[in-house]
Amino acid sequence: MKRQLILWISALGFSTLFYNQDLGLNMFIFALIAITAVVFIRREIFKRTDMCIATLIYLITSLFVFINHSALAIFMSFITFIVFTGTISGTQNAIYVQGINGIYQTFLGALHYYTTPRKERKVITPKKKRDYGFILLCVILVIGIPAVFASLYSNINPIFEKWVGAIDLSFINISWVLMTLMGYLLLNNITVPASLHILTKADRNVDQHLTERPISETQEPVLHKEQLLGSLVIGVLNALILFFLVVDIWYVTNNPLHNAVELSKTVHEGVNALITSIIIAITMILIFFRGNLNFYKKSKRLRVLTYIWIILNVVLVLVTAFKNYIYITDFGLTYKRIGVLIYLTLCIAGLLTTFLKVAHRKNIYYLIRLNARIVFFVIVLMSSFSWNREITRYNLSQATHPDLSYVQTMHTNHIDLLYAFAKANPGKFSFEAMKNIERKYTSHIERLENETWQSKTLQGIKYHNNL
């Protein structure tokens, strides 16, 4: 009874927050409601560290929706909700397995729980209790079936149709009721233990360490050839990348790189080539360090050359990041240039995790699992910014040659910054551009003025405080 009461109260909160509302403060309040419901119904799972971390991340990203109100923040709030839900039943799993379990539990959790055979609980003296399922079925049938027949009879007799039509049920909001039921089903699903058991167990039991096998006399010559071949290949790659770094650093230091076309080609094409080369080289390392070569005593040279190669690639990534920095300082921020920084960050993460894989003799599953978690946390971190506003603020105040037309094409949650700049610098915009900015600003202000408490945003609160 306590569980059902919590679920129905939470479901009413769900419909109150989201029925005919935009997303804003309601995302954060619902996160509090969902977490509270899980705490009351399944308190024991919060003894796990991974559950506490998933809960905290979900709560933070839902707060980002209120603070930033960006598409990325909204998207990540949904994603972290899925991961939070998957962590409820999936213990110590990879982030992608938690996501799959979260999707499964969000839509089919209760169905899984009530249709899956479970071990018998402690034998207790049965207590007489009400069959709420039977009561609900009776209510539905007693009301629903007569309603169907009344509708049929009203088509037969006009007088009966008039009497049926006189019944005023306008006070019942069917859409709101359906929204409440959806909230109940959602919260019911996430508060029961449910997961894809086979996938969850297989992922949990996978060994992330390489296993050393006895090296026979026939295998040792093969391993010797492998380490020799690997040393030659990695050694040549080290020489090539070192030569390239010298040339590239000389090029950067002796060429101002103030030409937009040249910078774009140097940065974007360079990033594509860099990522491709790193993927190919990491694949080669995985091939060489796939088995007993990790434990071969004479493979020290190959190991050292691999570490040098990783360090040189990190330097190459940093040089590319410096080129992107020059691009940004001269011509401003764009989503593509921010994307380059994200790609380069993930490249460094991939190189460092490859170093750990070789140094600690881990397998490829360790690499995939760790990098998936890193990607997840990087995207969560990116959602903490309102990039439209950051791009606009930087481009209008810091960039040497800002692209004003680019700033005008972005979503309107930055329009107050652009409007203030346009008013202060009318000569930098055409008549049509000024009219378009004013129209977007007026529309944005109307949205802020019409915000309800459920869809309230931090920007809306600041606007009302400044009135």
What does this structure look like?
With 467 residues, the protein is mostly helical. The protein has 3 domains: 1-117 and 130-208, no CATH class; 219-362, no CATH class; 387-465, no CATH class. Helices cover 74% and strands 0% of the residues. It is built from 19 helices and no strands. Helix 1 (2-18) runs antiparallel to helix 2 (25-41), helix 11 runs antiparallel to helix 12 and helix 13 packs antiparallel against helix 14. It is flat.
For the termini, the CA-CA separation is 48 Å
Strand coverage percent: under 5%
Using only C-alpha atoms, the radius of gyration works out to 30 Å
- Tell me, what's the shape? flat
Helical segment tally?
19
Largest sheet: none
Question: Which ranges are low-confidence, i.e. pLDDT below 50, for 5 or more consecutive residues?
Answer: 120-126
Overall pLDDT confidence: 83
Number of strands: 0
Characteristics:
467 residues, 3 domains, 19 helices
